[in-house]
Structure formats: C-alpha cells, structure tokens
Amino acid sequence: MTDSPKAQLLDAIKMHVPFDGWTRPAYQAAVADTGIDPVLASAVCPRGAVDLAIAFHQEGDAQMVMRMAEPDAAEMKIREKITFAVRTRLELVEDKELVRRGMTLFSLPQNAADGTKLVWQTCDAIWNSIGDTSDDVNWYTKRATLAGVYSSTVLYWLGDESEGHEATWVFLDRRIENVMQIEKMKATVRKSPFLSKLMAGPNAVLSHIKAPSRLNDQGLPGHMAPKSQS
Length: 230
Hints:
globular, 70% helix, 13 helices, disordered C terminus
C-alpha cells in the first residue's frame, strides 16, 4: 500500500530537520525529494513544516499506543505502565535532533498552543492506553500531572549523554515517585475525618466537572454537570 502524500513528506523531511529545523527550506527539500506536486503538498500540509512536525509527534504517539497494547505491558501495575509508556515514547525517537528542533518550533508564540496540545494528547494517549476510566476532575488532574512529568523528562533526556540514557530513566523514576506521593496525600485527606469535612465544599464543586468524552459540545475542555432537580 502506497504511503499517503503526507506520510511521504514526513519521511522525506526527517533527514533535513537536523540541519534546517522544521522550517520552510526543509519542507521545500522534502517536496523536491518526493516529487509530489507542490499544490498537492500545500493541500495536505497548509502550514508546511509545522504540519509535518505535528505529524511526527503524532506518529510517535501512535507507535507508543501500539507498544502499550502488547501482552507484556498489560501485566504491569499502573505506575510501571506510566513509566514504561514515557520511556517507550522517548526510545521510539530515531533522532533526538528531530525533537530538539521541534521544541524550538513549538516554543515560538504562534506555535505554542500546538505544542501544548501535543503534550496533552501524548499524556491522554498514555492514560487511555492504561485503561483510565475517570470521567470527573480526576481526568484533568491525571493528565496535567503527567504532562509535567513528561515535559521535564523530555528536557532532561535531550541533554542526557549517559549510556543507554540511564540517567534519564532514574530521573523519570523520581518524577513518578513525586506523583505517587501526591496520590498518597490525597488518600490521606480522604481518610481523615477532619480533612475530609474541610474539603467537602470544594469536592462538591469539583464533582460536577466532567471529562470531555461525556460532553455533547465538541471542542470544550469540560463542563459543569447540571444539578439534579429535587
């Protein structure tokens, strides 16, 4: 089966990005390398290299999800699955420079929203692959917390020159441990008669927040569930 024009362009641009970044010259070189009609290329990539950088990130997410579906990953505990998913996501990268140049691209003001969305999509993919079924405020807190872990780990990994990136995996374990401590603290609050009463008001408000998958309206981050009529 022949790859789509966009897939062909993505494969072609990868050899140019380490030298030119995710830029127009790299995009034009990819178009020339593939021989794809420039009009067709513009149709599938209206923003040129930006669209291909997004496709590159999404390609990595898709590969990670496939790896998470394998039997050995299914047998892991939740903490192990998260660690494995983040590590797998980074190990799938064929050239660090593609990611480094991508971070430069998405740090630009006009592309920052795309970069934030991509990180969120990665964390959402990880939680979904684990089998997360939360449909309340926890849907957001899980992904927001993981986004912090993932982003800091990527930054550390980019500068890591240790053999097999062992320093990065130690760093990742520490970040996951920090998250687990937060979860333990939340459990302590729930079990404490005094603290649970103290948080009753805020928790009542937060209980009305639902995950996007429960929405009828598309494109919104969440909604307040209507109060039941007595």
